[in-house]
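User: Last request for today: this protein with adenosine-5'-triphosphate, please.
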Amino acid sequence: MTVAAHSDFAESGADLELVGISKRFPGFTAIERLDLTIPAGSFFALLGPSGCGKTTTLRLVAGLEDPTEGKILLGGKDVTGLTPHRRPVNTVFQSYALFPHMSVLENVAFGLRRRRIGDAVGKAHEALKLVELDHVADRKPAQLSGGQQQRVALARAVVNRPALLLLDEPLGALDLKLRRQMQQELKQIQQEVGLTFLHVTHDQEEAMTMADTVAVMNQGRIEQMGAPEELYELPRTVFVANFLGQSNLFPVEVAGGTDQVIHTDFLGTRISVPRSRSERDSGAITVGVRPEKLTLSKHEPEADATRNVVGPGRVTDVSFIGVSTQYTVDLPGTGAVQVFAQNLQAGPTAALGDEVWLSWHVEHTFGLADDRLDTGALSSDLSTRAIASRAALAE
Ligand code: ATP
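Assistant: Here's the final one, the structure of the complex with adenosine-5'-triphosphate:
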């Protein structure tokens, strides 16, 4: 039965379409009218904080949950009513779930044998070669490292040639170095086999490293979706600006402009944003800039049509990270501003307590759709993120 279900679909991956999907649990809506198309052969990441609905989305696609509303199409075929094992979908979980009493080879061949597919052993060896583990085919899972076990789990999923491979935080149990290495390997494997990968993670760096397209999810909705660079360089909401990397946000009032640029007022200082990079062009808006785009100066730089300058503020933290130094500057009206400066010269450019100005290219500014944030919320949010980023670096 499963063989027939699998052979109905393309060998090389299929488009996944979610059409108007909602999922309501008693007293709680986890997914709200979600429309999403993932093209065949792409590596797609669903990224969001705990509880945003990403695992529920994955379980709906796998058939482990039924949607309250909507349809799921794979390769153009409606699979909404199909049981999990009849869907051409395999899942790789964070826990490898390998059979401990079987050899690596038997683990990988298991599904093929059960479905009575010819040359299960030959195909299992091929899949193990793909993950560069054919030389340990006779070992038991316990004789492998965590990273190797995860690669066996991947081989076991890929060998079935599913039209769609679901990855549920697959690298979460690995240490940081191994995780980075596996991210590159997973990406290479996906390109080699050409299957459609749907990857669920709360790790923004993991999503950006591997995926062609990242969808940032918040409270059961997709806030923004696009190539990693696009999301990073031009976030459209405060949530995306903060969840994907860090952002410095300024509550401003639109005060005029030209065809190309909107001029805003930040407590008497002009901050300009290109019109094409702003979601709104009137009233109270929020403008932002990424920390690595800022330059610190101990003397007030000249603002001109191409550069925004704010300040003075006071340096309240200097953290040497190796490749960069991260400064926190307390700026009246917005709170803590983060600056990442590459360590191109010996010694810091500013010290704790220094009075500094911050400047950046107008083209690096973005304007957000969200309503004005009160500065208290903004600065506490920024300091939370500063703590979170330090924790991540210390990991
Ligand atoms: P995490 O990264 O922590 O796994 P997530 O983004 O994957 O989070 P989901 O597991 O999809 O989040 O859960 C989304 C929301 O739906 C959560 O608030 C969760 O408590 C709720 N939820 C999930 N499953 C059920 C259930 N069976 N009954 C009731 N609520 C549920």
